[in-house]
Amino acid sequence: MSRPRCSVVIPTYNGRKLLEVCLASIRNCRPRDFEIEVIVSDDASTDGTAEWIADAFPEVKVARLERNLGFVGAANAGVAAATGEIVQLLNNDTEVTPGWIEAGLAPFADPKVGSVAPLVLVRSDPSRVDSAGDSYSFIGWPCKRGHGEDAGTWSQRGSDQVFGASGSSAFYRATALQAVGVYDPAFGSYYEDVDLAFRLRWGGFSCVYVPTCRILHEVSASYDHGKPALQRRMSKNAELLFWSNLPMRWLAAACIPHVAFTLAQGIWRTLRGRGRPWLDGKLDALRELPVHRARRKHRVDLARQAVSRPHFPLTFSTWNDAKNHLKRPRESFARIRGSVRA
Question: Which member of 160, 245, 253, 311 has the greatest number of CB atoms within 10 A?
């Protein structure tokens, strides 16, 4: 049996209702000219996900975990089970569209392309963009490009180089993942995709945005962003990203702006009643300073074995980025009971 061209890996935890839409869209849009495999990585769900898939979608493989490992653990287990040349990590709250796989795979004809970023649209309002790839500001702010903007503008824009791909639907070259590693378990969830984008950059790989590869995403359907534990984790992960990944020449210039940005962010979150989990997350990151040093050494090792000279297309945050972040789509995750992760 020949190796699949692509493995579509979908981590899930008690997300059966979300999977009904996601898997049906893949079945309807599945390519006829080449083989793909679809793997659901079941993070010890208790809603009968595995049994239901075996009955309703027998063509889908299930990698079932015996205990709950969280999003990153489930995603990595799915990647480990994948046999395709390319791996797409797809959230369970997404829906693919016709031609998505063909468009997403095309840039990998260039061996230096390590990842591809689709045009991700808000499912409840496809006229709005969720992500056109990820950007990263040198002050330490990861952003979704085009977030909340008009989809037509980004649809008409041609393919271009972008810092990284949003984890909701990113494509990765399997050999690139073998070279730089998969998601870092230290992140748990949130910004783990940006950390991987950095490591791919350190490894000399590029990322291409492809507007003809379109994914619909039910924003915030899998996580309750109001939970203090998640806010604390996001606060910690933002620091892990900054101190572990920025090249030294950028880090030296960015330290003071990053501290100023962090203080402003702390004031803003305190005014919204979320100051304590934000502060706890920063303290968690501070306790891991020795780990940051080890991570930085790993990045340098990646650069020594890079497939091409590492390039980091970092940006300067703009008022437009801040405005789009503040007005980000807030889908009713509570509406889809049983889909919110612990």
Answer: 245
Give the pLDDT score at 250.
87
Domains of the chain, residue spans: 1-92, 228-306
Would you state the CATH architecture of domain 1-92?
Alpha-Beta Complex (3.90)
pLDDT digits (tens, 9 = 90+) for 245-255: 999 988 889 99
Buried/exposed code over 249-258 (b: 16+ C-beta within 10 A; e: otherwise): eeeeebeeeb
Q: Enter the pTM of the model.
A: 0.90
Find out whether 81 and 41 touch, Cβ atoms under 8 Å: yes
Residue 106 CA to residue 130 CA, distance in Å, equals 22
Burial of 308 (0-12, 13-18, 19+ CB in 10 A): exposed
Q: At a CB cut-off of 8 Å and minimum separation 6, what does 118 contact?
A: 100, 103, 104, 165, 169, 170, 171, 210, 213, 214, 215
**Crossing angle of helices 289-304/192-202, nearest 10°?**
40
